[in-house]
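Title: Request for sanity check on Translation initiation factor IF-3, mitochondrial prediction

Description:
We are preparing a figure and want to confirm that the structure record we downloaded matches what your pipeline produces today. Could someone re-run it with the sequence below and paste the raw C-alpha cells into this thread? We only need the C-alpha cell string, no images.
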Amino acid sequence: MTAFCVMKLLCQATRNEHRYAKRFCGTLLTQTQQKRVFSPFWMVVSDPTKSVVFGLTQAFCTAEKSPKELKRKTAFGSVGRRIPYRILHVINQDGESLGNMHRAEALKLMDQHDLKLVLLRENVEPPVYRLMTGQQIHEEQMKRAEKKKSSANPGMVQKELSFSSTIAKNDLDTKTKQIAQWIEKKYHVKITIRQAKDSNADMFTLFDQILETVSDKATYLSKPKVTREGVSTCILRHMSDKELKAYQKMEKQRNSTEKKDEDLKSNELHP
C-alpha cells in the first residue's frame, strides 16, 4: 500500500513539472511573436532523483536596427572594390548619369577607364556612385575641408562687406579700416566683390590688397573664390597666437635680410 502511494505521488509530481514547463515555453513563444526576443533557458539536473531545474540566460534580440543606427559617416573618397549593393546608379567623371547597373558592370567601367568609384548618396534606392579621377577626388576633399573649416562656429560673429570692383580708393580705404576694426575684435569678415560691367579689374588681386593692409593680424579663413558669374568672395579671420609668432619671426628675418642688402649696396657706393 505504501509503495502504491509513493508511485502515485511521483507520477503527480512529474505531471506538474511537465505542465509548468509547457506554460513557461508558451510565455517565451508569445514574446517571440511580439518582439522577436528569444530567452534561451538551460536545464540542470544535479541528481537523477531530483526535479528538473530551469534557469534563464541573458536575452538576445534579432530585431533589425533602425536606419539611424545603421547609418555610418564615411569620409569622402574611393570605396575601392568593396561595394555592398548589387544595383548602383552610376555617374561618370563628367557628371553625366549612366543610369542603373550591376556593380560588376560599374567595376568593369572603373578598370577600363582607370578611375575610382566614390559613394555620393547612400540613403536612396539605388545608391548613387560616381566615377572620378584621383585629382577630382583630391579637389573635392579640399573643398569639403575648406567648407567645414569656414562654417561659422556657434559663438563666432561674422561680419559682411560687399562692394563693386570699381570702388573708389577713398571708399576702399574706409572699408579696409572697418575690416581692421572687426579683425581686431576677432570677428570673421566675409568680403564679396561684384565685377562691374566693362571692368577688367582682377578681383582676386583686390582681395590680396585688402589682406595686405591687415596682414599683421589677419589671414584667409576661406580663400578667394568665384561663387557665381561676376561675384567672388573670401572670409578673413584673426590669426592664432602660433600664426602671429610665425608671422613676426618671418617679418624679422625679412627685415634683417633687407637691412643687410642695403648695407651691402651702401658699401659698394661708398668704398
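Thanks, this matches our download. The longest strand covers residues 218-228.
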